[in-house]
Q: What sequence folds into this?
């Protein structure tokens, strides 16, 4: 007769759980490690909240079981274990607790509605979303991040069982950010206002990361988990947005067919409110997927890494062949910055998707080639920015572009050097992972500098 969970050390219980998963033919080693990582995250958060180790294991398995049929199967096959009662709900009992997933659905839908309504709340005070020309008003540009990110922080604070004091501490940077976004006397359509609108969401997203990872935000593993979450959130959100675009198109078409104009409703209500609520729904879907076997990160990185590498190499070859330098127009430089950000994001996502213990392979060489070609493009972009500054002088946009390209350059240099050493078997892959996760706060720090320092430095123009 097996011992009850309370008499079995937590590590042994985890080992038994891991052994069961490894017996499943559909699950490989990376899948098991990913699932075990999520289980340990839950246990760590619960023990921090005051639960004993065995109690934390029980609750963590229940949470994962509520989302993943594998944990339910595991519980059923070990029916003598006490924690079966936590994983498999007793449908015959009228007093059975509401399943965690059902409660979570209610919470998520409530927060999604709250985010959608928050978008329209300023209109109660006479602040409208669009001007007479249908353009987004400056207030909404500066404060776009505040409509969604606080709801995400509330969701993760609830999901992780965060204490009221910890949740209140996360509210402080939101309050500080709101002050700097709204008290500065920006000139109409000023460059510093546009820079604030672009960089403030970046800074706020790192606060979401703090809520998502909790105390593990200070560790590389915690940040890497948030990187995975962010990448998959982007994918889910794009899919939802595509579906929303189809819904919007059919809505306009149907009402036009009966002579009813719904353009104003679509532009002022359906699109902005739907876009805000969809962020919460997409985040929930990513969280639900964490206990499912499919992992999109390896597939996406192996598809897009070769494509981006080919594009960058062809571009560099075309520059060498034609002898043409990068156009120094602002729009062109912004496009190149976005391209480099995408490349860095792809490299970071590839790092998050790779099994650390695996030996270097051809894909790692391809990643090194991608980083090297991106470095070359970044150097060329920096030269173009330097030429524009020397010719026309310093402006908020040029200084911001210069700083961002320097930050990207340092990141790419470090990643390229470590990739090269890893491919040559000089350092473990963990060194590259530590570099990428350790460098993430630099982007947040630069966003804070742009939001707080740039407006007064350039006299709010």
A:
């Amino acid at each position: 007769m097996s011992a009850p969970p309370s008499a079995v050390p937590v590590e042994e219980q985890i080992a038994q759980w891991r052994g069961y998963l490894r017996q499943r033919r559909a699950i490989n080693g990376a899948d098991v490690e990913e699932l075990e990582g999520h289980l340990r995250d839950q246990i760590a958060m619960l023990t921090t909240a005051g639960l004993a180790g065995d109690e934390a294991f029980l609750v963590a398995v229940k949470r994962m079981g509520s989302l993943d049929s594998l944990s339910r199967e595991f519980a059923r096959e070990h029916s003598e274990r006490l924690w079966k009662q936590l994983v498999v709900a007793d449908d015959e009992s009228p007093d059975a607790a509401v399943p965690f997933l059902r409660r979570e659905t209610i919470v998520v839908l409530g927060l999604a509605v709250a985010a959608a309504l928050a978008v329209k709340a300023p209109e109660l005070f006479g602040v409208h979303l669009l001007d007479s020309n249908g353009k987004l008003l400056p207030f909404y540009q500066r404060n776009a991040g505040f409509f969604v990110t606080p709801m995400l922080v509330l969701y993760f604070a609830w999901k992780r069982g965060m204490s009221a004091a910890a949740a209140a501490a996360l509210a402080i940077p939101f309050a500080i950010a709101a002050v700097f976004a709204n008290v500065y006397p920006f000139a109409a359509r000023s460059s510093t206002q546009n820079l604030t609108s672009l960089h403030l969401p970046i800074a706020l997203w790192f606060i979401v990361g703090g809520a998502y990872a909790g105390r593990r935000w200070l560790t590389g593993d915690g940040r890497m988990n948030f990187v995975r979450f962010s990448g998959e959130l982007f994918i889910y959100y794009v899919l939802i947005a595509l579906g929303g675009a189809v819904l919007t198109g059919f809505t306009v078409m149907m009402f036009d067919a009966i002579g009813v104009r719904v353009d104003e409703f679509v532009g002022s209500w359906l699109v902005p409110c739907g876009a805000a609520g969809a962020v919460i729904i997409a985040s929930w879907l990513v969280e639900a997927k964490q206990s499912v076997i499919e992992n999109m990160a390896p597939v996406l990185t192996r598809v897009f890494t070769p494509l981006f590498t080919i594009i960058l190499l062809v571009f560099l070859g075309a520059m060498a062949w034609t002898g043409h330098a990068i156009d120094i127009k602002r729009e062109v430089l912004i496009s190149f910055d976005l391209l480099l950000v995408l490349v860095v994001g792809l490299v970071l996502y590839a790092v998050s998707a790779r099994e650390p213990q695996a030996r270097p392979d051809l894909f790692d060489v391809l990643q090194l080639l991608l980083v090297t070609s991106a470095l070359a493009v970044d150097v060329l972009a920096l030269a173009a920015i330097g030429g524009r500054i020397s010719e026309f002088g310093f402006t908020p946009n040029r200084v911001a572009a210069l700083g961002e390209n320097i930050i990207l350059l340092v990141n790419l240099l470090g990643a390229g050097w470590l990739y090269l050493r890893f491919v040559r078997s000089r350092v473990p892959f963990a060194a590259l992972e530590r570099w990428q996760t350790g460098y993430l706060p630099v982007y947040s720090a630069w966003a804070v500098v742009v939001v707080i320092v740039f407006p007064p430095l350039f006299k709010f123009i």
The chain has 18 helices and no strands.
